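Chain A, query sequence.
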Amino acid sequence: MKILVPMTKVKKDLAIQLVVSFAPLYLQLFKEFQFDAGGWFVMPSHLQKIKSNLKIDNYVLLYESEGKILACLMYFIMGKSEYLNWEKEVGFLSPSEQGDFLNSWTGYFIKSDLTWLDEILGDWPDTQQEENHAISQFKALSSEDQKLLIEQRTYLFLHIFSSLHNLFSLMVNGEKMTSLVPKAIQGDDEAYFRATKIDRSLVINHPIF
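Chain A, predicted structure.
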C-alpha cells in the first residue's frame, strides 16, 4: 500500500496536537506492551493478530518520514480518496491558503468530541465466542462496507504501530524511529542497532535491511 506525504502541510503545533488527541488510545495500548527476557519490546497478542489480519507489516516503511505517519492518520480521519480529492479541489488556492484551510479543519477536529473513536474501535474480543460474533457481524456487511472498514482500520493501525514505536524510541533512545531509521539506511550502524532494539520487525519487513 503506497503512502503519500500530503502536499498540503499541517502546522507543526497543530500536527502535534492532532497526534496528542489520540494519546488516550496510545496510552491504553502502550500499557499492554511488554519486554521479553532479551529486553525487546513485545506487542500484545491482539495487536499481533490485527497486524497479521490487516497485512500491515509494511508499517516499518513509515519510519522513513514523519509525514507518512501523519498521512495515515489523515487518511483514517477523512478517507484516503476523500483527502486526495480535497487536495485536488483546493489546488487552485495558494499554498498559504491551502495550509490555512487545512489548519482550520485540523483545529476544529482537535476540539471535537472523540468518543466516536471508541465506537469505531470497540472493545477487544476477550473470548473466542466474542471474536466469532465480531467476525459474523463483519461478514454481514456489504462487500463495499467491508472494504471501507478494512481500509479505515488499516490506516489507523499503520499510524498506531508506527507512532507507538516512535514514542518508545523517544523514551528509550532520546530519538524517534523517524530519525534513527533514515540514518540506518545511510549506513549508520549505531542507529541501526538502536532502531532494531525498539522494533525488530525492521530486520524482517524493511527491504533495505
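The two ends are 19 Å apart (CA to CA). The chain has a mean pLDDT of 77.
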